[in-house]
Amino acid sequence: METTFLMVKPDGVQRGFIGEVVSRLEERGLRMTAMKMMQLDREAAKEHYAEHEGKDFYEPLLKYITSGPVVAMAVKGNSAISLVRDMVGETDPKDAKPGTIRGDFGIDVGRNIVHAADSSESAERELDIFFNGSDYQEYKRVEESWVYE
Ligand SMILES: Nc1ncnc2c1ncn2[C@@H]1O[C@H](COP(=O)(O)OP(=O)(O)O)[C@@H](O)[C@H]1O
Ligand SMILES: [Mg+2]
After folding, report:
1. Which of 46, 53, 102, 146 could form a disulfide with 89 if both were Cys (CB 3.0 to 4.6 A apart)?
2. What does the CA dihedral 66, 18, 73, 53 come to, rounded to 10 degrees?
3. What is the DSSP string of 28-64?
């Protein structure tokens, strides 16, 4: 099993998509193992988006991601990292397929509703920014033997 990092961004929170995002993850058979609402300060935002420093969208991105509360989640399941990325859709919602979160709810690349880790290295790094060991809950959903063979 893999654990990935997903975050409902400030626009997703403001537009009332926390429940929708959580529902989609739950319906897929994934399991949240940690969840936290917070507002990122500039330092935390810079750490999270370190790979984008220097790009032309970096400053607007920091402003966007610190503009209001976000909901951070650890999401666990078989192949969770690629599965959740696929559920989120392309970075630019204009290119994201219907059926994905961005493709169903977004239009503008600067307001793309959710973040999801893109690799196991990113997932580990990002989870460590947002969560401590004691934030995680270890449990199994009762239906898991019906989700997995
Ligand atoms: N060209 C752009 N203009 C404005 N914002 C952008 C642009 N490219 C990326 N972003 C923002 O930066 C975030 C991080 O970019 P990236 O890591 O490339 O995408 P993803 O979130 O799909 O992993 C995007 O989700 C989006 O919020
Ligand atoms: Mg990324």
Report:
1. 102
2. -30
3. HT-EEEEEEEE---HHHHHHHTGGGTTSTTHHHHHHH
What number of residues does the chain have? 149
Q: What range defines the domain where residue 10 resides?
A: 2-135
Write the CATH number for 33: 3.30.70.141
117 CA → ligand 2 middle, Å: 6
Please list the pLDDT of the chain residue by residue as tens digits (149 residues): 999 999 999 999 999 999 999 999 999 999 999 999 999 999 999 999 999 999 999 999 999 999 999 999 999 999 999 999 999 999 999 999 999 999 999 999 999 999 999 999 999 999 999 999 999 999 999 999 999 99
User: Could you give the number of structural domains in the chain?
Assistant: 1
Give the position of tokens 């940690």. Answer: 34
In this structure, is residue 69 part of a structural domain? yes
pTM of the model: 0.97
The two three-digit tokens of residue 142, written as one number: 């009762």
Tell me the catalytic residues. Answer: 115
Instruction: Please give the structure tokens belonging to residue 128.
Output: 């460590």
